[in-house]
Automatic annotation (TrEMBL):
This is Large ribosomal subunit protein uL24. InterPro entries: KOW, Rib_uL2_dom2, Ribosomal_uL24, Ribosomal_uL24_C, Ribosomal_uL24_CS, Ribosomal_uL24_KOW, Translation_prot_SH3-like_sf. The gene is rplX. Pfam families: KOW, ribosomal_L24. Keywords: Ribonucleoprotein, Ribosomal protein, RNA-binding, rRNA-binding. Coiled coil: none annotated. The keyword Transmembrane does not apply. Belongs to the universal ribosomal protein uL24 family. One of the proteins that surrounds the polypeptide exit tunnel on the outside of the subunit. One of two assembly initiator proteins, it binds directly to the 5'-end of the 23S rRNA, where it nucleates assembly of the 50S subunit.
Amino acid sequence: MRRVRAGDQVIVITGRDKGKQGKILRVLSNNRVIIENINMLKHHDRPNPAAGKPGGIIEKEGSIHISNIMLYNSAKDKGDRIGFKRLEDTRKVRYFKSDGEIIDI
C-alpha cells in the first residue's frame, strides 16, 4: 500500500513550487507523481499535417518525486505525515499522525 494515491490532495514541501497545493493525477512506478498544475513544463510540438495536428508550445505537468510532497490535512491547514494501522475488521488504512484521523474509509 502506497502512502499517496491518485486523487489525494497534497502540498509541495520543497523545490520551485514549494507551498502549492494540488490533486494527484497519476502515481508513476518510479516513486514519482504527477500533480495538477504543479511543475508545469513547456513542450515544443512539431506540426503533423497528415494527422491534422497543429504545432506549437504545449504546457503540461511534469513529475515530482514523492519525497517532495506531503498529504494535505484540511483540519490543520498544512501538510501532515502519514501512518498505517489495522482496524478491527483487519483492513489496513492510512491515518494522519498528528491527530490520528483516518484518511481511508
